Amino acid sequence: MERKRVEVLTETADWAVCLKPVGVESEKEMPELLSAMLGGKFFPVHRLDLNVGGLTVYARNGEAAARLSELIRTGSFRKAYMALVHGNPPASGRMEDLLWKDARAKKVYVVQRMRRGVKKAALSYETLWTDIKKDRSLVLVRLETGRTHQIRVQFSSRGFPLVGDHKYGARDEETVPRLFSSRIRFVWAGREREFTALPAWWRKEDYFEFANPDDDAWKDMI
User: CA-to-CA distance for 75 and 36, rounded, in angstroms?
Assistant: First the structure.
């Protein structure tokens, strides 16, 4: 069976930035693929759901993994996502919820009170584009916390399930959630490192009215 290849955007002696394909597991399969491609060991410091693709960073040694993990813990490692949702959310907003994960069902729920296993979750977003006819919108999401299925469940709980996300209420013909890790930003060795990318499904929608993906101007949106 042929191994999937991973697009590597940048690599240093300490870390590599790459695009995780949809259907590839973050914490074991991705490091194995990177090791086969580039040699050496790779350590996951954050994760994407199996059916979500986009930008990820992998450490190349234990010290770098610890430093990147600390940046994530302190909120200095910034992440933004592009999501296509059903409905028409407000132009911008902030969502804050209490989330509880049902490990047996592998599903996350918004709950009303703090108890064992419940975690606070927060994000902010901007609506970039809305198609009234299709009743769907493109949103840019900036995470304040990194909880399991956070974007998916927070938008769904407000009546805006992600297109393709049947686990959280979507009723469409897409096979995977339209969610993509589109930007990461962190400081390393005194320099700010920023990486941006677009999802493959971008070209399947009518976004060109405000941004041409062949032009760098779209980067200003994310």
Answer: 31
H-helix or E-strand spanning residue 196: strand 191-196
Least confident of 82-96, 99-113, 131-145, 192-206: 192-206
Give the C-alpha distances (Å, rounded to integers) separating 221 from 8, 56, 183, 216: 23, 19, 11, 10
Contact 98, 118 (CB under 8 A): yes
Confidence class of residue 200 from pLDDT cuts 50, 70 and 90? confident
> Where does CATH 3.30.2350.10 sit in the chain?
1-76, 78-93+122-184+199-222
Catalytic residues: 49
Looking at domain 78-93+122-184+199-222, its CATH class is alpha beta
pTM for this entry:
0.90
Are 180 and 199 contacting, i.e. CB atoms less than 8 angstroms apart?
Answer: yes
